[in-house]
What does this fold into?
Amino acid sequence: MSSLQTPPLSAEQATPDSRTLRLIRILLPIVVLAAGIAIWALVVRLNNIPPYVLPGPGAVFRTLVSDWPVLSQSLLTTLLTTLEGFIAAAVGGIALALLFNQSKWLEYSLFPYAVILQVTPVIAIAPLLLIYLPQQTAVIVCAWIVGFFPVLSNTTLGLNSVDRNLAGLFRLYGASRMQTLRYLKLPSALPFILGGLRIAGGLSLIGAVVAEIAAGSAGAGSGLAYRIAESGYRLNIPRMFAALLLLSAAGIVIYGLLAVTSHLVLRRWHESALGKEN
Amino acid sequence: MAEPATSSETGSGTASLAVSLHGVTKVYDSGVAALGPLDLDVGKGEFVSLLGPSGCGKSTALRLIAGLNAPTSGTVGVSHRAGQARAGHSIGLVFQEPTLMPWTTVRENVQLPLKLAHAPTAEANARVHAALTQVGLSDFADAFPRELSGGMKMRVSLARALVTDPDILLMDEPFAALDEITRFRLNNDLLSLWRNLRKTVIFVTHSVFESVYLSQRVIVMTQRPGRLSAEVRIDASEPRGEDFRTSADYAAYCREVSHALAPLQSGQPGS
It folds into this structure.
């Protein structure tokens, strides 16, 4: 439309463009989702696939509604486990990083084991944990194991990336260790810590699910993953899908909440949270 | 690194000296000899520039005076006020970068040295306000550093150095990253601050023009390891202003300092 004129680089020109762009970015995934669901429904109907092989989206939705009492209870159980694991991971990761930062000896002694804990697949550790710990505790420990490492390593990175000159200034003015930690290191590390927490949120959910599946039918608790396993044994495929849907929604909500928190905390000063035009 | 930020010898020397270095050398752990041996006496209230090619140890000298590093040999003497208040600190330091804490306001940044010294809040607030007024930023106390221009950030940095009412102001190429117009303005502001407050200023720069314009004495340093190569006294009438910047005297001094610097730039390093 403005093909004859060179578009001026003014804000008035840029705003509608960026708004359309944002709208497109929101609309496109929705279109893809709708198309996917339509194709799914079509494939199921045209091929006459029975629901115990592949339920259509309608069947999944109906199950979600009809089984809501059971599923919502399971969702709550899983979310609670995830939350507990996440808090343990956040507190444990940050505390350990602070300890490492204060004492090199401690870091050298313990850091390798933090790495080992991280690289050993949690699905392999879960059954062992279930032998030695009460089930509820084991599930939380699993969520903690997978969640704490990103918090630990990110916090460590943040504490070590303090501006050298600022650190010199703190020394010049005779800052104590606590003051340096509180007024310099922790604020410097904050963006890194929040990044670690964002990863840990999703991982805590994975940890909780893994532990629930490992606990399997032995589980007295009845989280969503347990529902999936149970429904699998009973060939209740629509319920499997419904539970899966809830799990993935839970993951999205957790990520979104942490991303918003991070943005709100950093928006006044950190590059990552500033508008691109600044 | 919790070593006290004081140098090996303090309070020594004659009463009129603010800083005195004797046979000071600095060899870094990597084996690089950065400085010396260097002898330097700076009188109280004097404005001295350290001028030299980059990497000649100017900044190292400043860090030694500030007590951020210990000299490998020699003594660093810095005079301390007797019985100074808890909130006072005898040295103020300004880096090439503004080095502000981005996560907090201008006010909090300037208040930092007082907060670290546990100064009473009422006194701290008054001092912060005074320091910000001195640099002409009293209206920006609640701004965040990223909302300020480069020159304004540097002013905040200067206010932070002044807030403890130090005797000695150490400035490490503070205006090197600024555009010329801003630099000239800050030069003038710094001069008028110095005239009013009469602090000892040690100013590191690699600009001949800046050093001549600002200082009473220009110390030209050699290539690494930095030593004293020449010393030029600038006897210009006070107060200096744009008149001085365009005067023949100024040009003559610049020529003299440039000549002192020239053999270092053309010659081999390590002379």
